[in-house]
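User: I'm curious whether this sequence folds into something compact or stays loose and floppy. Could you predict its structure so I can see for myself?
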Amino acid sequence: MRIGVVTQVRNEADILPAFLAHIAAFADDAVLMDHGSVDGSAALLDTACRGRPGWAAWRVAVPGHHQAAFTGFAAHRLLRSGVDRVLFLDADEFIDLPHRAALAAALARMDQPGDIGVWHWRDCVPDRLDAAPLLGGTVWQAPAPSRYPKVVLSQALFRASGGRAGPTAGAHFIRDPGVPTRNVPLGDLLHLPVRSVEQMRRKVVLGSLAELARSDRGPTDTSHWAEALARIAGGAMGEDDVRGMAARYGEPGAASDPLTPDGLVARGFTRRTLSVASTGSVASTGAAVPAPAPPIDAWHAVADAVLQWAPAPSASLVLELVDGVLRAAVPPAVWPDPFLLGTPLLDLARTALPAGSRVLVIGVDAGVLDVRATPDLAAGPFDAVLVGDLTPVRLAAAHAALPPGGLLIGEGDAAAADPGVRATISNCLATAYGEGTACPPDTAWRAALDGLFRVEQSQDIGGALLRPAMAGRAGRFDWTDPQDATAGRLVAVLDGLLTRHGAVPPGRVAVVARRMG
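Assistant: Here's the prediction. I'll summarize afterward.
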């Protein structure tokens, strides 16, 4: 029997060595996907794959927590290659069996085409919350399984479904089985979602933002994280809080149910040793194990979060694997990159535009029209034009693309309310960031706008920091480079915050206008 594992990780370096040593004890094949980690997780996955021809480390380059799409894509690859059983495991999950033979015997009970293997999710709480629980360490185990199962997909069910069966989000169920199914209990899956207060804060904040980047999210999706966010925002999350969250992970109200160690005993938790199948080392093939990166500081966390703000609707998400990178085959987003059009402008656009609007997006590079639209969108006329940087030439192009009454939504340089402050900021940043020079505002678009459009709404936004910063780096700046993109987005976020609080004068203005006849 060929056993395959699919896992998706993000900033799990604290527990990955134990997890990788665990699956190395039984997995013939594995797809290990890293989704934008900044803590050294990707390097650990690469190391684990060396010397294991059936293992592959992928990078996920699609924003948003489209877990079902990612894991389903990987599972289908494994099943088409001949794998008999695919296990969907997170880095904080451990099969409570002592060796591969016991696992193979359990999986062999899935002997009918419609059989779905089911693990009982057993929440565990680390004995200590200052470090990851290593194999052989002590944890507190819940007295009963969670109501959330985890499933195993077989080759037989994959074929019976015509190649359509795949996991739902979280791999709690199988979608599109195509035939009558039967659940086959396999045993317990030990679940350790919380290892420290800092790890849980990071998981909740970044996970929540990744969920928000899913346009298909439901109103109750990850509601347990929403509760935890409120406690984090209030500075109230401590060890008892995360202990309570781990004890009732995913359940409503868990974030408001703190538990002491004595509280765990009162609820029937028992101490046990985390003893499961393991090779003892992630690098059992002899490859050197890279040292985990230092703990993620606040700025890295903010940058990582900001990078998630580029929604991709999973309903129309088509994935492809290119050189080990899982990406969207056809970027489906109608909205432009949030940096190109600042968040206030996007808010205006979402308010002004009805669903299904036909939108032309004019990008930031001079003379370049960047058209992003739904697949059925033909050439104009358009219901609206979004312009990332207003100029007379672009306004003329927008006017030609719109019918009378069509919407223009754009942003451009604002007249300097305090030229002295603006000049100081511009001179300092332009020279500090490299070979650039001061970047005075260009407000020629205002006169052109007045002759072509009727302004309905305008709003001062940031830009006093952003424009000179980017002008100084433009010659060597690459938005496809994660480090450059992180720096640019951080500047944009800080720019907007300082402008809204009056610390710097506004450098840009966002407008919503109608094309005149």
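Summary: Confidence is low (pLDDT under 50) at residues 283-316, 331-344, 364-379, 433-437. The domain at 1-328 is CATH 3.90.550.10 (Spore Coat Polysaccharide Biosynthesis Protein SpsA; Chain A).
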